[in-house]
């Protein structure tokens, strides 16, 4: 039994990867209709939680994040909230693949210090085992809420897109 645990996992089938790509595409198009600006925070978090089961088990985390990123790259809706859309979808699909990601919601401390003269800069990003998979900004953000784990005092997403 111990030897089986050390064997590499079988590569996901072409059919599973194709079904996954379609599911991400469809969810990326439908999420803006469900993720209204006036949606209560608790209901938004519920959208990030997948139904029971792990239909995408066998897919790797980086591949999931890349597919989600491609699906939200050129938004028609939610242009100014791309990180939220990407974060919610990435978290949802990582969970449905059996991973334990963290969905972070935070603000730029400089925008808070600026007060009323500047718009508050909020952001959303996803981490898995301390590595940022979605919503990289490259600037320090103060995490206000983390879904899926305990919030660190400060989280710093790696450089990338947001």
Shape: globular
Average residue-wise pLDDT: 80
Oligomer: single chain
Query: Segments where pLDDT lies below 50 for 5+ residues?
Result: 1-8, 150-162
Total helical elements: 6
Spatial strand sequence of the major β-sheet: 3-2-1-4
Structural class: alpha+beta
Report strand %. 5-15%
Question: In which range does the helix fraction lie?
Answer: 40-55%
- Give me the strand/helix succession: HHHHHEHEEE
The number of strands is 4
Describe the structure.
The protein has 162 residues and is α+β, with helices and mostly antiparallel strands. Helices cover 41% and strands 14% of the residues. A four-stranded antiparallel beta sheet has the order 3-2-1-4. It starts with a helix and ends in a 15-residue tail after the last strand.
Quick gist of this model?
The chain is α+β, with helices and mostly antiparallel strands and 162 residues long. Helix content is 41%, strand content 14%. It has one domain.
């Amino acid at each position: 039994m111990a030897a089986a645990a050390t064997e590499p996992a079988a590569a996901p089938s072409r059919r599973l990867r194709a079904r996954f790509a379609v599911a991400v595409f469809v969810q990326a198009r439908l999420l803006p209709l469900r993720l209204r600006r006036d949606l209560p925070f608790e209901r938004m978090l519920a959208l990030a939680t997948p139904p029971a089961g792990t239909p995408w088990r066998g897919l790797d985390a980086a591949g999931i994040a890349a597919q989600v990123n491609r699906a939200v790259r050129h938004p028609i809706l939610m242009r100014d909230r791309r990180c939220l859309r990407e974060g919610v979808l990435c978290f949802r699909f990582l969970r449905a693949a059996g991973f334990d990601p963290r969905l972070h919601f935070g603000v730029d401390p400089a925008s808070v210090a600026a007060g009323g003269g500047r718009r508050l800069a909020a952001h959303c990003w996803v981490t898995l085992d301390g590595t940022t998979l979605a919503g990289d900004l490259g600037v320090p953000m103060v995490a206000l809420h983390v879904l899926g784990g305990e919030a660190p005092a400060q989280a710093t997403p790696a450089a990338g897109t947001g």
